[in-house]
Amino acid sequence: MMRYLMIILSASMLVGCGGDGDTQTTVEQDVLAQVAGLGDSSADEQMFQAAFVAGAAPQNREDYGKYAYVIDGEAEIDGDQATVPVKIIGGIVSSQEGDSAARKKAGEKTETKMTWKLKREGNEWKLKDAPLPG
């Protein structure tokens, strides 16, 4: 009986509670998160500037809040450079214009495919070129 108890105790210690708590994201996940979060970053000047390589942030920050960004294919990562195909969706919700503006324009959905470029600075990926439609 004691032998079985020791086997069960040893097995439960080996299995543990489901991991060592050290979750690492992949390079591709880091790149894609930077693209997907740009709409939220556009609401704050400092966050928007921090999302871009120094000197690369566009002057039309507010325009970035008018769109949703969806990765539309595979990111190509080459060392510290990345290109990402992005589907830019307009006419869904513009939180910066308020709910009434979003309801009025809800039928004006647009989708445009663009390619964005990113660059790794230290451990962070930052946008280098993120053009909008038009």
Structure overview:
- There is one protein chain.
- The protein is an alpha+beta fold and 134 residues long.
- The chain is 31% helix and 27% strand.
- It has five helices and five strands, in the order H-H-H-H-E-E-E-H-E-E.
- It has helices spanning 2-15, 27-36, 38-41, 45-51, 99-104; strands spanning 67-71, 76-78, 81-90, 110-121, 124-129.
- Strands 1, 2, 3, 4 and 5 form a five-stranded antiparallel β-sheet that branches.
- The protein is globular and about 40 Å long.
- The N and C termini lie far apart (76 Å).
- Residues 1-15 have low confidence and may be disordered.
Portion in helices: 25-40%
User: Any idea what the shape is?
Assistant: globular
Main beta sheet: strand number and arrangement?
A: 5 strands, antiparallel
Separation, N- and C-terminal Cα atoms? 76 Å
What does the radius of gyration come to?
A: 22 Å
* Fraction in beta strands: 25-35%
Class by helix and strand content? alpha+beta
> How many distinct helices?
5
Mean pLDDT: 80
Low-confidence stretches: 1-15
Order of helices and strands: HHHHEEEHEE
Number of strands: 5
